[in-house]
């Protein structure tokens, strides 16, 4: 899903952010009296999938894209929210930023997934984008799915041991 939101500063903090017909966009300082170059800003974070692994960490990469290239420097914050995947156990919690320079449409945000040997269901967590300025509520979320790669514990029956093996005599 694409969301629209406003510029949050950047080089020209006096740039005016307006909402036209439900779409937030950027009006540059010098254009405020004209309103001609209204630039909608839309962003998307894609879902991501990674195989869990057994040891160490595996990088899960989320693509963050702008519908149109950034018209000025933009910074987004990223955080994670637990789903079935447990923060700290199944993945490494880390706050980060995604920075779009001029004319850039694609940036990536990575989360480190922890490997283990436990048999689990596939588990998910969310990566949440937010506006550092906190001006516009931005609820853009990417879902990260950790594919479990561990087998069920081997439950083969152990033959019972005859504890009363023979008679050793008195
Ligand atoms: Ca594993
Ligand atoms: Ca796990
Ligand atoms: Ca596992």
What labels describe this entry?
Immunoglobulin-like; mainly beta; 0% helix; disordered N terminus; 170 residues
Lay out the secondary structure.
Layout: E1 3-4, E2 16-20, E3 23-27, E4 39-40, E5 42-45, E6 48-51, E7 57-66, E8 74-82, E9 96-100, E10 106-114, E11 123-130, E12 141-147
Parallel strand pairs: 6-12
Antiparallel strand pairs: 1-5, 2-3, 3-4, 5-7, 7-10, 8-9, 8-11, 11-12
One calcium ion binds next to loops.
Description:
This protein has 170 residues and is mainly β. The chain has strands spanning 3-4, 16-20, 23-27, 39-40, 42-45, 48-51, 57-66, 74-82, 96-100, 106-114, 123-130, 141-147. The protein has a five-stranded mixed β-sheet, with no helix packed on it. Strands 1-5-7-10 form a four-stranded antiparallel β-sheet, with no helix packed on it. The protein is rod-shaped, with a radius of gyration of 25 Å. Bound molecules: calcium ion (3 copies). One calcium ion binds at residues 52, 116, 118, 120, 148, 150.
In short:
This protein is mainly β and 170 residues long. It contains no helices and twelve strands.
Q: H/E element string?
A: EEEEEEEEEEEE
Radius of gyration, in Å, reads: 25 Å
Largest sheet data:
5 strands, mixed
- Sum up the overall morphology in one term: rod-shaped
Average of per-residue pLDDT values: 80
Structural class: mainly beta
Which class of the domain at 44-147 in CATH terms?
Answer: Mainly Beta
Number of helices: 0
Which quaternary structure do these chains form?
single chain
Share of residues in strands: 35-45%
Q: Are any ligands bound, and if so which?
A: calcium ion
Could you name the CATH topology of the domain at 44-147? Answer: Immunoglobulin-like
Low-confidence regions: 1-14
Note the gap between the termini.
82 Å
Instruction: Give the second-level CATH assignment, the architecture of the domain at 44-147.
Output: Sandwich
């Amino acid at each position: 899903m694409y969301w629209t939101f406003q510029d949050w500063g950047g080089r020209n903090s006096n740039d005016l952010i307006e909402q036209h017909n439900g779409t937030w966009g950027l009006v540059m300082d010098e254009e405020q009296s004209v309103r001609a170059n209204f630039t909608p800003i839309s962003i998307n974070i894609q879902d991501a999938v990674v195989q869990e692994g057994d040891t160490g960490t595996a990088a899960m990469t989320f693509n963050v894209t702008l519908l149109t290239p950034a018209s000025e420097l933009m910074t987004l914050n990223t955080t994670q929210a637990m789903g079935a995947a447990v923060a700290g156990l199944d993945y490494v919690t880390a706050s980060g930023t995604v920075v779009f320079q001029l004319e850039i449409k694609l940036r990536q945000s990575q989360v480190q997934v922890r490997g283990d040997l436990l048999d689990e269901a596939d588990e998910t967590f969310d990566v949440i984008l937010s506006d550092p300025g906190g001006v516009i509520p931005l609820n853009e979320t990417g879902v990260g799915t950790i594919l479990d790669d561990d087998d069920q514990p081997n439950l083969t029956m152990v033959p019972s041991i005859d504890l009363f093996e023979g008679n050793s005599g008195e």
